[in-house]
Structure formats: C-alpha cells, structure tokens
Design a protein that fits this description.
By secondary structure, this protein is of the alpha/beta class. It folds into two domains: 186 residues, Rossmann fold (3-Layer(aba) Sandwich); 237 residues, Rossmann fold (3-Layer(aba) Sandwich), CATH 3.40.50.300. Helix content is 36%, strand content 25%. The strands form four sheets. Strands 6-7-8-3-9-10 form a six-stranded mixed sheet, with helices on both faces. It has a six-stranded mixed sheet with strand order 16-17-18-13-19-20, with helices on both faces. A four-stranded antiparallel sheet has the order 2-1-4-5, covered by helices on one side. The radius of gyration is 24 Å and the shape is globular. The model has no long low-confidence stretch (mean pLDDT 88).
C-alpha cells in the first residue's frame, strides 16, 4: 500500500508549522522522518494520525483520497501511532492484556456487548507470541518497565488494522539491549508488510534500521533519499541548512577549589554509597546505562528523595537537603530528564517558565509580580539562548523538544546557582540544539560554576566532561579522567566490568 501526503500546510497562532509538505512511503518499508527540533516532523505525523484536523492539502492511500480529521478515522484506515510519552498512553491500573486489547474493549462497551475475558487474554497472548515477546497478560501495566510499556503499546497498535505504524522517538528512554529488541520487532513488522515511520534524532539508529529517509527543515520538505545513498554528515547538512561545526565547544578552563563534596550518598537500593566531588569550573560526568541509577542520584542530590543518607557539602558547608526548595536555597539547580513532566510548566508561557524559580527578582511591594520586568528579561534570555518561539507569551507545550529544553535550562540561569545538575539534557534533541546546549554548559563552567552531567550517551560524556564517574547498579564503580579514557572503557565499566 502506498501513502501520499501532498502539499500539507497547517498554522497555529503566530506560526506556520507546515508549509506545502510532501511525504510518501509504502508498507513493508522502514522510513525515517527527521529534522531539527521545530522542523515539523511531529506536526506532520499528527496530521496523518488525525490529531490535527485543520490542515490543508491532500492524503491518499493507494491512490484513493482520504480526509483524516480524527484519530479514530486514522486508526480505521490502519494508521497507528506510539508517541514518545509512553506513560500517558498506558493505563497502569489495567492488565497487559487489557491494555493491548483496549480498542476492542472500548468498542464492545460502546456497543453494549458482553466481554469474553478469556478470549480477550487469549488474543493478547497470541499477539505477544507473534512478536516473540513473553509478557504475562494478567500483570498490571503499572508494574512494567518503560521499555515493556512501549512494547505493549506497539502490540496494541497491531492488535487492530495496522498498515502504517508511527514511532515517535521510540528509543529515547531505552537501553542498548532494549533498543536491540525494539529493532528486532520493527524488522519483523516490516517483513509482515507494515510500514514503519520512524522519528529519531539518533543518527546511528537511522542508518541501522531505516530503508529511506525524508528530511524536513523549518516546516518544509527538503529531500527524500534511500538511506544507502546518504552519509551522516550529508543528513546533518540537510537538517541544518549548513555545515555542522565541531559538536563540542573548545574549552580551556582553569579549575578552582573543590565546590561540591558528596560522601556516601544513598537512597534505598537505587543509589548506594556513592561519593564524588566537583571543582569550580569543572564538568563532571555521571555515566551509565539506562537504569544504572543516574536519575535517582540526581534527584537524591537535589533533595527530591525522602530516604537519603550521606553528606553533601557546598563550599565547605554541610547541606540539609530535605526538599528541592532547600536545595535551590543552598545553590543547587536540576534540569531533569523528563522535561515535560518535571522540567517545565507546559501550560504556562515561556516568560512564566523562565521566571518560575526566581520570582523574588520580579516581586514588587506586597508580592505583586513586575510583569514588564519579567517580559523584558524573558526576551533577553530568548535571544541569548536562541529559543525559537513566536513570543515570550507563547505556551511552552507548543514549542519543540529542543526549545523546551532551552527554557528548562534558562529558568535556572536566572536563578544563578553554584552547581548545575543536568540529567540526560540532550534527550530527544536534534544535533543543532545539542550544540547550543553544550555551549551553554561550557559557558557556565567558564563562569566558575560546578557542573554535573549525567548521561547514557557516552560520546557526550567523552566530548564535554573533564572527569567522569561510572555508575553501575546504583554505585559509582570507577572514576576516570575524561582525556585518558574512551567510550569503550566507559561501556566496559557501565556493564559491570571490573
């Protein structure tokens, strides 16, 4: 089956998100849809999946014109989507089987039919068996790992009519092993004549799994090519419209005295007796695979865990990190991994987000906010950080992932902390925005700030940090000078090597 999207355009208040975009693919193919943050990839797929109904242009399936204006109609036509925010699509109080067969269950209830639960679980088991997965169908979905939840959503998508499956940043939360398993399933679905539309910012994955590539920039179609006819550098140039300079900024910082000392930090079984230090002007990496405890370590250090043991000293003074509020008052800042959930207020404006953690700077008599000062400051930071937004009053939820991340970082720049903790700061961010984020971090270090950079992207650890601690099973198992190590050595210790 052929899919053609022709001359697709769509506007939102203050911005033209798509401008005459063409997109063509077929069943049985794995097709990468890529572009910088804000290029329009997700918007185009939301048109295809019926989430945006006010588009202009045409859509054809096997030469027949179709009007897709609702998600239900898209699903009826065989177009299914698994979005990046897996937790919002899974119903944790239902079983694996009930989540897989959710569409059929809803249809039965709508038609007031009795449910044959035995048959439902048997059908769910058959779908999982066809995917070569061994998940207990009667296990509560809330007890699954993030990777397992994603596989359940894919199983749900193919449980009904599925000709085209859209996967939006599917590997962002996955470990290497989990990604390998996902790719096995993707290849198997393609062999079964399902068309996969694969949205990703990870270049190696595109060249590993995809047959063809469509590249977008600034809401427009740029080029479509077979993956075999492209080189990674070409793809980056198409995405950015220019040659990409070195990914990581040159740094020649002089390190100061020890700024932060952490001794025996523990948080149940998630973080175990971890000690490290950070000097002024130093970028210290916390490396490890997904699930190693990096996020838990960052949250424990930020006072966001109730059962924390150990001592934390900043500028020689012991801190009592009983809450994030106490951490902020002490001079710590955290840019969390889940930016939409924890890093920004998605329903609020850019200016409100940027001022959120430093409202005292904008407070007038009797606690009223000086909106003019807030607006002027927001405009300054939007320009300085290169945040792409129609205005400072635009809602953050309407920005691309990379620009949301810049807002999440910008709010802490206003707070002027002593130590900045970055947890997977480039997750779901394109190569151009990554470079901007690396520049911001390097500037903070040059100002004498202490930086903790936690990431499972080992190339980033090697490229941006001065020293690195490798986490395995919640424990720091190795300390290394970054200039004297390699990605291979970091991976060795990350996987339990001794």
């Amino acid at each position: 089956m052929m899919l053609h999207m022709k001359n697709i355009s769509i506007e939102f208040p203050g911005v033209r998100a798509l401008n005459g975009v063409d997109f063509n693919t077929a069943t049985g193919r794995v097709h990468a849809l890529i572009g910088a943050n804000g290029a329009g990839k997700s918007t185009l797929m939301k048109v295809l999946s019926g989430a945006h109904d006010h588009y202009t242009g045409g859509i054809q399936l096997d030469g027949e014109s179709v009007e897709i204006r609702t998600p239900a109609h898209a699903q009826k036509l065989g177009i299914q989507t698994v979005y990046q925010e897996v937790d919002t699509a899974i119903i944790p109080s239902l079983t694996v089987g009930e989540n897989i067969m959710l569409n059929q269950t809803v249809q039965s209830l709508d038609n007031r039919h009795w449910m044959n639960w035995k048959q439902l679980f048997k059908q769910a088991e058959d779908i999982l068996k066809g995917m070569n997965l061994k998940l207990p169908v009667k296990k509560l979905a809330g007890e699954l790992t993030l990777a397992e939840k994603q596989l359940v959503l894919i199983a749900r998508a193919i449980s009904s009519n599925c000709s085209f499956l859209i996967l939006d940043e599917p590997t962002a939360p996955l470990s290497h092993t989990e990604t390998t398993e996902l790719f096995r399933i993707v290849r198997d679905l393609a062999k079964r004549n399902v068309g996969i539309i694969f949205i990703s910012h990870r270049m190696p994955e595109i060249f590993e799994i995809c047959d063809e590539v469509t590249i977008m920039r600034n809401g427009e179609f740029i080029v479509k090519k077979e993956t075999a006819d492209l080189e990674p550098q070409q793809v980056i140039e198409y995405m950015l419209g220019r040659r990409m300079e070195d990914q990581f900024p040159a740094r020649s910082n002089t390190l100061g005295d020890t700024l932060l000392e952490v001794a025996g930090l523990s948080d149940g079984d998630k973080v175990r007796n971890t000690s490290f230090y950070v000097k002024a002007g130093e970028i210290v990496g916390i490396a490890g695979l997904v699930g190693a405890g990096k996020t838990e370590l960052c949250k424990a250090l930020f006072g966001a865990s109730p059962t924390v043991g150990g001592t934390v000293r900043l500028n020689g003074k012991e801190l009592k990190l009983t809450s994030p509020h106490a951490a902020v008052k002490s001079g710590l800042a955290l840019v969390p991994e889940e930016r939409r959930k924890e890093g920004v207020l998605v329903a609020e404006s850019v200016s409100s987000n940027l001022s959120a953690v430093s409202l005292k700077n904008f407070s007038k008599l009797f606690g009223f906010i000086d909106r003019r000062s807030e607006k002027n400051t927001a405009q300054e930071y939007i320009k300085a950080l290169g945040i792409k937004t129609p205005s400072e009053s635009a809602k953050v939820e309407n920005l691309s992932g990379g620009n949301q991340q810049k807002v999440a970082i910008g709010r802490w720049l206003l707070a002027d902390a002593d130590v900045y903790i970055f947890d997977e700061p480039t997750k779901g961010v394109d190569v151009g925005a990554k470079r901007d984020i690396f520049e911001l971090i390097a500037k903070l270090a040059a100002q004498g700030k202490g930086i903790i950079y936690a990431s499972s992207e080992l190339s980033e650890i090697v490229g941006i940090t001065d020293r690195v601690y490798v986490l395995y099973d919640g424990e720091a198992v190795k300390e290394l000078a970054t200039a004297e190590t390699t990605e291979e050595e970091l991976l060795f210790y990350s996987t339990g090597g001794r």
